[in-house]
């Protein structure tokens, strides 16, 4: 029987959740399993409150009976569990394949600790094979896309059916193919200087711990050293 490595990693991450925590719920195929396991633990008596990074994750949490609160009702989170499209050993991430990168980054930055859950295919030596998602405003998007291309990437606006994909915030996603990202921090600074960019999918210095599920049933844990 094949192992669901995403489920393996996600359920391990949920072991870090204890009574009384305020938890951020990520978005995507691996975060789905974490939310499902949290729902089981809530049914067993775990006392937590949570916020979600997307409409889809919020709906899943409600269905499972996970207590949700508004962002105005709390001043921060103890822990966020979320997936990644790519991660390296410095715990630099590419996120946004599911289109929720802005909300995911807000929630992760508002957490004392972010745990990344992934399968081993997402662990890479150098970021960049996965197209970097960049959330941009619809107004004059053609100019923003042109500015992104000047950074040395091929840019494609994400589509959904016959039209352009829109995030939960009503923005577009520009998927930028760099192939190799030599310095994530330098690229992040360049992206932040482009007017029209709302947020980018590089998560640097945010994740504290990565839990990686492997096909042989083992789990690799990578922890970022304090001060990095």
UniProtKB/TrEMBL annotation:
InterPro entries xref list: NagB/RpiA_transferase-like (IPR037171), Ribose-5P_isomerase (IPR050262), Ribose5P_isomerase_typA_subgr (IPR020672), Ribose5P_isomerase_type_A (IPR004788)
Enzyme class, first EC level, given as a word: isomerase
Residues annotated as binding substrate: 27-30, 82-85, 95-98, 122
E.C. numbers: 5.3.1.6
Active site: 104 (proton acceptor)
Reaction catalysed by this enzyme: aldehydo-D-ribose 5-phosphate = D-ribulose 5-phosphate
Family: Belongs to the ribose 5-phosphate isomerase family.
Protein name: Ribose-5-phosphate isomerase A
Species, as recorded: Paenibacillus riograndensis
Gene it is expressed from: rpiA
């Amino acid at each position: 029987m094949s192992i669901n490595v995403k489920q393996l990693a996600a359920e391990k991450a949920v072991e870090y959740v204890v009574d009384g925590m305020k938890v951020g719920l990520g978005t995507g195929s691996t975060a789905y399993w974490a939310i499902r396991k949290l729902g089981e633990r809530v049914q067993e008596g775990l006392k937590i409150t949570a916020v979600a990074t997307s409409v889809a994750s919020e709906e899943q949490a409600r269905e499972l009976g996970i207590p949700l609160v508004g962002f105005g009702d709390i001043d921060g989170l103890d822990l966020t569990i979320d997936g990644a499209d790519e991660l390296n050993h410095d715990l630099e991430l590419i996120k946004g394949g599911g289109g929720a990168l802005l909300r995911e980054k807000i929630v992760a930055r508002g957490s004392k600790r972010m745990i990344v859950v992934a399968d081993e295919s997402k662990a890479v030596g150098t970021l960049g094979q996965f197209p970097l998602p960049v959330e941009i405003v619809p107004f004059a998007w053609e100019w923003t896309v042109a500015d992104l291309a000047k950074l040395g990437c091929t840019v494609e606006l994400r589509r959904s059916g016959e039209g352009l994909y829109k995030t939960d915030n009503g923005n577009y996603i520009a998927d930028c193919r760099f192939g190799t990202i030599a310095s994530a921090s330098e690229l992040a600074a360049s992206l932040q200087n482009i007017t029209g960019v709302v947020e980018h999918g590089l998560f640097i210095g945010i994740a504290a711990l990565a839990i990686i599920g492997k096909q042989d049933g083992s789990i690799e844990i990578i922890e970022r050293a304090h001060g990095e």
